[in-house]
Amino acid sequence: MADIKFPKIALGAWAWGNDGTFGGSIDASELKAVFDTAMASGLNLWDTAYAYGMGTSEKVLAGFLKDLPRDSYLVSDKLTPQCVNVSADNPVAAMHDMQLNLMGLDRFDVYWVHNTSEAPKWTRVLAEFFEGRDDAPMIGVSNHNLAEIKEADAILREHGLKLGAVQNHLSLINRSSIDSGILDWCKANDVVFFSYMVLEQGALSGQYDTTHPMPEGSARAQTYNPILDKIEVLNSKLAEVANAHGVGAAQVPIAWAIAKGTLPIVGVTKERHVTDAAAAATVELSEVEVIELEELADTLGINAIRFWEKVMD
After folding, report:
1. What is the tens place of the pLDDT at every residue in 74-85?
2. What is the per-residue pLDDT across 163-179, written as a single tens digit (0 to 9) for each?
3. How many angstroms separate the CA atoms of 143 and 141, rounded?
4. Model confidence band, residue 218 (pLDDT cutoffs 50, 70, 90)
5. Which residue, 43, 123, 39, is CA-closest to 78?
6. How does pLDDT run across 220-264, given as a tens digit for each residue?
7. CB 171 within 8 A of CB 199
8. Which residues, including other chains, have CB under 8 Å from residue 154's CB and lie 6 or more apart?
9. What is the pTM (predicted TM-score) of this model?
10. Are 266 and 199 in contact, with CB atoms under 8 Å apart?
11. Where are the domains of the chain?
12. Domain 10-300 homologous superfamily, CATH
């Protein structure tokens, strides 16, 4: 397929699935202004998945896209192995086409193998499904280590395709995709690296601290609330760097991810999340600032690997 012109930042609709990860439910009507602000800001790349609320996120996004020209936006969606209907004649085709129908689209711009559960099998079926098709999307893999990434690329090449993107958790407190050589491999092989959770689900936004914890009952609160004392130290440095650039603390981790040569996915549920992201795309951190942030993060000894992930090696 033709090269895609991506914006500097993708916007994530994970929380739009209302699956309990982020706490309270979000009404679609609240998100329309978020969507409109994003599109007006030139942030037109939307990342979703059927697994985000079993179609809820996709349906909400589809409602906003339906009257817009197809070339005015980009959609990144995922084949989640755990959601595949294995009794279908072609489980990959069934899931892919179900998602297209659910969203009212004729194609996806990026389509991912969401995780490594039997990933080689699903990657091979996916490659067979898209082989020779003019409407084949950019194909990516998510939550894969370097060996798994290379294996996926080899499978795709057997069918005249190639790996176009990798999507992994990457932030100041989880840099295993850098340390393991994944990011360098992506750069050397013209593969776009999408970094997700650059803000650690809001922990690195400056919004939360020991006196203002994350909402009780949310999955993210279980992870981050017990370590908010350490998070506060890093957020203090983020605020210092942010002040030097005339932006908010939440914009610095995003700018850091861009400085590392990645395309960050920023979850958005409020208009300020969008305006923060748009502003972050204009921030250029110095090499000294990047090093100082990383060195401070290292001293905190935070383990930010989540239950669905692994240490990349």
Report:
1. 999 999 999 999
2. 999 999 999 999 999 99
3. 7
4. confident
5. 123
6. 999 999 999 999 999 999 999 999 999 999 999 999 999 999 999
7. yes
8. none
9. 0.94
10. yes
11. 10-300
12. NADP-dependent oxidoreductase domain (3.20.20.100)
Burial of 303 per CB tally in 10 Å (0-12, 13-18, 19+): exposed
Dump pLDDT digits (tens) for 144-170.
999 999 999 999 999 999 999 999 999
Whether the Cβ atoms of residue 186 and residue 138 lie closer than 8 Å to each other: no
As a whole number of angstroms, the distance between CA 75 and CA 115 comes to: 18
**Which residues lie closer than 8 Å to 251 by C-beta, 6 or more apart?**
242, 245, 276, 277, 279, 280, 283
Rounded to whole angstroms, what are the CA distances from 274 to 31, 35, 169, 215? 11, 9, 20, 21
Closest by CA to 183, choosing from 148, 146, 147, 157, is: 146
Structure tokens at 217: 């009952």
The rounded distance, in Å, linking the Cα atoms of 149 and 169 is 14
Rounded distance, CA 242 to CA 289, Å? Answer: 10
CA–chain centroid gap for 267, Å, is 8
pLDDT for the residue numbered 310: 77
Question: How far from the centroid of its chain's Cα atoms is residue 240's Cα?
Answer: 26
| Region of residue 35 (phi > 0: left; psi between -120 and 50: alpha; otherwise: beta) | alpha
* DSSP-derived secondary structure for 153-181: HHHHHTTT--EEEEEEE-BTTB-HHHHTT
Q: Which residues contact 190 (CB under 8 A, 6 or more apart)?
A: none
Beta bridge partners of 206: none
Say which DSSP state 200 is in. G
Question: How many Å apart are CA 195 and CA 257, to the nearest integer?
Answer: 7
Structure-token match 């067979």, residue found? 128
